[in-house]
Amino acid sequence: MAISQRKSLRKPSGGRYKQKGRKEKVNELGREPALTHIQKRRAKYVRTRSAYRKVRVLAADTVNLFDPKAKKYEQAKIKTVVENPANRHFIRRNIMTKGTVIDTDKGKARITSRPGQDGTINAVLI
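Request: output the structure for the sequence above.
Response:
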């Protein structure tokens, strides 16, 4: 069954909204989340509207790290996930999303990019 991003047909009380009399449209389709974790880099290309393609990072072990004091970028190895505001269970599974606090060999950092949509993992030292 397809994942849909359209409004639910059920009310919070469990009752049903009146039917609109139409099927799901292609532009309402959703996709499975990437659930990026720590491993050797793996990516997947996803076709989107027009000729554009998204790069989904399925796994990565390095991060583009920005040091605000030195104002320099450098690559760092990811050790583990420390905190994830998206879902507390992602910490144990080492799943990275935007806003995740990770432990690197340079120190703790917060991810600023969206790994499931951007194709890279960028972070800022905290």
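Strands lie at 36-38, 42-47, 53-60, 62-67, 72-83, 95-96, 101-104, 107-111, 122-125.
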